[in-house]
Amino acid sequence: MSGDGRAGRISAIARRAARRLPMEEVARVRIDRLQGVSGDHKGRKFPRRAVTILAMEDWQAALNELQDLAGPVALPWTARRANLLVEGLRLPRAIGAILTVGNVRLEVTAQTVPCARMEEAHPGLMRALHPEWRGGVTCRVLTDGEVSVGDAVRIEYAPVEHVRRLP
């Protein structure tokens, strides 16, 4: 890992075979243009968001925001329902960014917008994930391959990020 925030590694991989099923963590998975993450129900139906990526640092920031007098909130990363958990990398906050995950190339197509399912996991989680793309990114697959926990993740290309500020 480099210290510049442009390279990291895969910490965990998860998928789910059907809607509303719990996430299944795996050590290795095939990712391709036709089905996205092998064994995950979304990639075939939604190729522009075939793979979802969450940064560990963003997940921790969201959980820290939920902390109250009862102490830290202990939610597994799979509550976010992302496919890849990465660490040591600040995910690009711009559509069109290209990531290399192992030997797979992915294009960022959107921010993963937190949904009401996050509120089911923990009250306030939806709001805590919304700022600064903390919920992660959705991607389409550019190059097929297999990825494993521990594989390198690099930002190959990142467009200029446009931060919206209110007057």
Low-confidence stretches: none
Number of helical segments with 4 or more residues? 4
CA-to-CA gap between the ends?
38 Å
* Beta-strand fraction estimate: 25-35%
Describe this structure in words.
By secondary structure, this protein is α+β, with helices and mostly antiparallel strands. It has a single domain, classed as M1 Pyruvate Kinase, Domain 3. 16% of the residues lie in helices and 34% in strands. The protein contains 4 helices and 11 strands. The strands form 2 sheets. A 7-stranded mixed β-barrel has the order 1-6-5-9-8-7-11. A 3-stranded antiparallel sheet has the order 4-3-10. A hairpin with a 3-residue loop joins strand 3 and strand 4. It is globular and about 45 Å long. The model has no long low-confidence stretch (mean pLDDT 91).
Structure summary:
By secondary structure, this protein is of the alpha+beta class.
Q: What does the secondary structure layout of this molecule look like, with pairings?
A:
Layout lengths: L6 E9 L8 E3 L1 E5 L3 E2 L4 H4 L5 E5 H11 L17 E4 L10 E4 L2 E8 L4 H6 L3 H5 L7 E7 L1 E4 L3 E6 L10
Keywords:
4 helices; seven-stranded mixed beta barrel; 167 residues; three-stranded antiparallel sheet; globular; single chain
